Amino acid sequence: MAILTKEQAQTLLKKVLSYSKADECEVGLNGSEGGNIRYARNAVSTAGDISNLTLSVSATFGKKTGTATINEFSDAALERVVRRAEELAQLAPENPEYVPLLGPQTYKESITWVPATAAITPDTRAEAVAKSIKVAKEANLQSAGYIENTSSFTAMANSKGLFAYNKDTDVVFSITTRNEAGTGSGYAARGYNDISKLDTHSATKISASKANGSAGARAIEPGKYTVILEPVAGAYMLENMFRGLDARSADEGRSFMSKPGGGNRLGEQLMDEKVNLYSDPFNAELPSNTWSRDGFPLERTSWIDKGVVKNLAYNRYWAQQKNVQPVPFPSNMIMTGGDASLEELIKSTEKGILISRLWYIRMVDPQSLLLTGLTRDGTFYIENGQIKFPIKNMRFNESPVIMLNNVEALGKPERTISIESYRSYLIPPMKIRDFTFTSLSDAI
Amino acid sequence: MKRKEFLHLSAMSIGAMMLPKFSLLGNPITAEEALYEGLDVSTKKALADVALQAATSKGATYADIRIGRYLNQFVTTREKKVQGIANTESLGVGIRVIANGSWGFAATNSFTKEDIARTAEKAVAVAKANSKIITEPVQLAPQKGYGEVTWKTPVEQNAFTVPVKDKVDLLLQANGIAMQGGASFVNSAILAVNEQKYFASTDGSYIDQDIHRIFPTFTVTKIDRASNKFQSRKSLSAPSGMGYEYLTPLADTRVAGIVTRYKGRYDLLEDIKNATADVEQKLKAKSVEPGKYDLVLDPSHLWLTIHESVAHPTELDRVLGYEANYAGTSFLTLDKWKAGNFKFGSDLVNIVGDKLQPGSLGAVGYDDEGVKCKEWDIIKNGVLVNYQAIRDQAHIIGLKESQGCCYAQTWADVQFQRMPNVSLRPGTSPLSVDDMIKNVEKGIYIVGDGSFSIDQQRYNFQFGGQTFYEIKNGKIVGMLNDVAYQANTQEFWNSCTAIADASDYRLGGAFNDGKGQPSQSNAVSHGSSTTRFNGVNVINTARKI
């Protein structure tokens, strides 16, 4: 079994620590079990089952740290990995940024483990895929998709008495449907802790309706448009900004969070007042790990409040340098919104574009966080509150910071995943004015 | 990257910025352990025979086994600090079979004969289960067995035998040059890979290979707090299928020009000095006027444009729809190939696929399904003539044998169609870069790869770069900022009007190209000489927040 209980993990980690002769020692355990099915052209292409359990040991003498990992668990192997970490530490150069380990902390139990997801079998996956392929076949479409479930736990302990444990379950599903002529394509992606929330039938239905609805797309002139970003599109765009909520790079002057003349933008009104971003590991829709990788308990934290930068992450070293309290990186991210449904946002739009999905987003300029990427799998022109016709995909060049200054309206937040990292977010559909498209694409 | 891998990565204090896509399946080991030669060939052959025998006795009509030992070493630094040193090792066996016309795969890190036989049987069971939901049976192109053969990357100095201290010293010396030259920050790293792979199949091949790759890289950043601007310049190194000798420049390594570029070998200390001067200039450079320009693209830049706009759309699995849900499909559909006259580019454009070029990332003796590597035309005189295929795809494009494009990132991953080296052949008439620039009235000369994005069928792309030089009336007149060019792939390659001759030919490459679900990494080179494209749309990327 790759999944240890809290007690089993603690017993094992204590034993590992008992072998340590270093000044400080930190040990971690990661275990995971899961499987996947990939399909294309309405048939399964590959499938796999993976299980792994790894122990890592970081030993420190003074400011010299060495790390070693192992996936054998005999007493001799445990002692060997500790000795190896200690040998590497003796060979390592001093790390001037080393901060002594944290002492014991109190963590609340996480709500990330769902027994039903942990009980997924290869048959469960096959059934979920069969349902999806059936929908595609009935709609005369070619499906290509992927389902993956993981049950995992993470535990850490150190020579100062800290012990932390979390276990979670995840299932992600994504589906692309295309018509035979190659003139229409649709997509849907889902990610949950709880398998019972995953409905591959309805997700494939949505993907199929986008595929059929996007056929016969017309070209419109690139330029600035009001857009409605569905959550799966918005999450991918914003994920690039979440990574930059870091004080050090801002203080160093190499981030969009850097302030002219020095320092960072903490306390500045950087976005529209409608924008609120926070993290909360106990959010029922988006539960996440309750401690950071350096051992801090994670609590609800506001990052952007009514458009004002409320917090940036400070690791322990940088916090010490700046004489502030450390702020750990969050384990999830939630954007608040309103009550409006996607349909209501469309209804309230005189002229605009509905974006189902974005694709291949890359940084163009880290100074302004300018990103480029393209629309994909269902882009529609809206006029007088109605979807009028599908339009050809377009490339955009836009900064999420500028975008969040141009918020017209936010809908009801939904759990969605980033199509690049597969991480889950809670993000509302967003109506944004003056979103910048720079060229047309023939891609479908 | 998955969150768990990220935690693991952080635990090893590796500079995550530099290592976005590494497989972290391996366990850290010491340098001494890296030199351990592993199982001897006769033991591997005996284990392979156990697997092949077990698979066929359970009904497999074909089986192959890969016994792999994968070593990675990462040394990462910033300014005066070492951020991480890690050696990782991953050792195990992957077995692939065809049974009832369907593929099955299973892998194990156990080396007992019993476990290997059980894993082979599991692969057969998976194949039989999958056979109920396939639409057509696998058709495998014939492949003769080679018997017992070996292949080794011809390295002069195995990077894993070079003491870590030497690497740290070199990187810190380079960082010192940048900081002394006025840089605000510098990150640098040396990454080394060694794949020790043994392949055996029921075709009668027993192939032992030892493959090496290396990638030294840095980013120099300079900040102007008053204007709140910053600029960076990455190294102009090319990840290479070489040993540590890549870091020892030879007499003919340097390519002279407005900035020194490198061929075959690399001078890290010189390049970081130049990069430091470049960031200074970049901070003062004028912002580009958007419009149409003739572009002169250096191989250190053009490799990425070739990678995204030529190499990806000619992957046959994308063309067929197997990547539709992840990497995407391709505009180069089979009907365009069948027509035999689809004008991908101008007459000058000749694109070749290979896994042979010395020093390239793709160079191996045999691919991961035991096919001897070769070279073939993909675009000939501008016309699409071929794709990149493996054994179970060859029949689809009328080939009698595979092109040898099969690869798996480790023993634990199933092999599938991956990109070989895909390169632009040099011009056949003598033409130097200087002579090319002389004829450009209004243009931009771009060196180094930067931002990149392309749609899922590979029509519309946008690329940045590291340094941009304005060309006016045949002369470079200064540096530009905020440059990105956007084009349609077919229009772009048809606007190719000049290619420098073979004396300018150089390789660039991707150390970690991702594809598949779960995603697998592949290393691949792209060669070219400096090339001119006329009338390309350039946008200005400056914004204010």
What do you see in this structure?
The complex is a heterodimer of chains A (444) and B (545). Chain A contains 10 helices and 21 strands. With 444 residues, chain A is an alpha+beta fold. In chain A, the strands form 4 sheets. In chain A, strands 7, 12, 13, 14, 15, 16, 17, 18 and 21 form a 9-stranded mixed beta sheet that branches. In chain A, helix 4 runs parallel beside helix 5. The radius of gyration of chain A is 24 Å and the shape is globular. In chain A, 54% of the residues are buried. Chain B is an alpha+beta fold and 545 residues long. Chain B has 2 domains: 201 residues, 2-Layer Sandwich (PmbA/TldD fold), CATH 3.30.2290; 255 residues, no CATH class. In chain B, strand 2 and strand 3 form a beta hairpin. The longest helix of chain B is centred in the first third of the chain and has 18 residues. Chains A and B meet through strand 1, strand 2, strand 3, helix 2 and strand 4 of A and helix 1, strand 1, strand 3, strand 20 and strand 24 of B.
Catalogue the unreliable spans of chain B. 1-26
Largest interface: A-B, 92 and 78 residues
* Shape annotation of chain B: globular
The averaged pLDDT of chain B comes out at 92
Helix content of chain A: 10-25%
Q: Tally the beta strands of chain A.
A: 21
Roughly how many Å is the radius of gyration of chain A? Answer: 24 Å
Helix content of chain B: 10-25%
Distance between the termini of chain B: 29 Å
Low-confidence regions of chain A: none
Number of helices of chain B: 11
Helix/strand layout:
The complex is a heterodimer of chains A (444) and B (545).
Chain A: H1 6-18, E1 24-40, E2 43-61, E3 64-70, H2 75-91, H3 115-118, H4 122-138, E4 141-158, E5 163-179, E6 185-192, H5 200-214, E7 224-229, H6 231-242, H7 247-251, E8 277-279, E9 301-305, E10 308-309, H8 316-322, E11 334-335, H9 342-347, E12 351-355, E13 358-365, E14 370-375, E15 379-383, E16 386-390, E17 394-398, H10 400-403, E18 407-410, E19 414-417, E20 424-427, E21 430-440
Parallel strand pairs in A: 7-12
Antiparallel strand pairs in A: 1-2, 1-4, 2-3, 4-5, 5-6, 7-21, 8-9, 8-11, 9-10, 12-15, 13-14, 14-17, 15-16, 17-21, 18-21, 19-20
Helix pairs in contact in A: 4-5
Chain B: H1 3-11, E1 27-28, H2 31-35, H3 41-57, E2 62-78, E3 81-99, E4 102-108, H4 113-130, E5 147-152, H5 164-180, E6 185-201, E7 205-224, E8 229-234, E9 254-255, E10 261-262, H6 268-284, E11 286-287, E12 291-297, H7 299-311, H8 316-320, H9 334-339, E13 351-354, E14 375-380, E15 383-384, E16 406-407, E17 416-417, E18 421-424, H10 433-438, E19 442-447, E20 452-454, E21 460-463, E22 467-472, E23 475-481, E24 483-488, H11 489-494, E25 496-499, E26 506-515, E27 520-528, E28 531-540
Parallel strand pairs in B: 5-7, 11-23, 12-19
Antiparallel strand pairs in B: 1-3, 2-3, 2-6, 3-4, 6-7, 7-8, 9-10, 12-28, 13-14, 13-18, 14-15, 16-17, 19-22, 20-21, 21-24, 22-23, 24-28, 25-28, 26-27
Helix pairs in contact in B: 3-4, 5-6
